[in-house]
Amino acid sequence: MGSAILFLINSLVDLAIFVVIASAILSWLIAFDVLNVRNPTVYKIAAGLERLTDPLLAPIRRFIPNLGGIDISPVILILLLQALKILVNNTIGPLLVATTG
Predict the structure, then answer these.
(1) What would the 3-class secondary structure string for the chain be?
(2) CA distances from 19 to 8, 25, 77, 82, 96 (A)
(3) pLDDT tens by residue, 4-49
(4) Among candidates 16, 11, 84, which has minimal Cα distance to 92?
């Protein structure tokens, strides 16, 4: 049971990292005019990814100063998510597996 919960947590963190990377790449493609937001499909995908990532990125953006159009908050979020994954695997994971089996 504990290993299944640990797998679920790791999978959710990996999914969050994937969504952040996809959102960053899509925002670059839109910024460099490779993709056009007037296309309904592109707009829906961009809006959906923005709704998923903004609650995670907004607290980080409050603390990061403006770097002249360069947004490094996705990189910081990915590092924090990786640190969370390591923390869960090394501290909470063994306790969870030991207690629940």
Answers:
(1) CHHHHHHHHHHHHHHHHHHHHHHHHHHHHHHCCCCCCCCHHHHHHHHHHHHHHHHHHHHHHHHCCCCCCCCCHHHHHHHHHHHHHHHHHHHHHHHHHHHHC
(2) 16, 10, 11, 14, 27
(3) 899 999 999 999 999 999 999 999 999 999 999 999 999 999 999 9
(4) 84
How far apart CA 27 and CA 12 sit, in angstroms, is 22
The packing angle between helices 93-100 and 2-31, to 10°, is 150
Token pair, residue 8, equals: 């679920």
> What is the residue type of 12?
L
Q: Tokens 């909470």 identify what position?
A: 92
Query: Average pLDDT of 48-61?
Result: 95
Whether residue 101 is predicted with pLDDT greater than 80 in this model: the reply is no
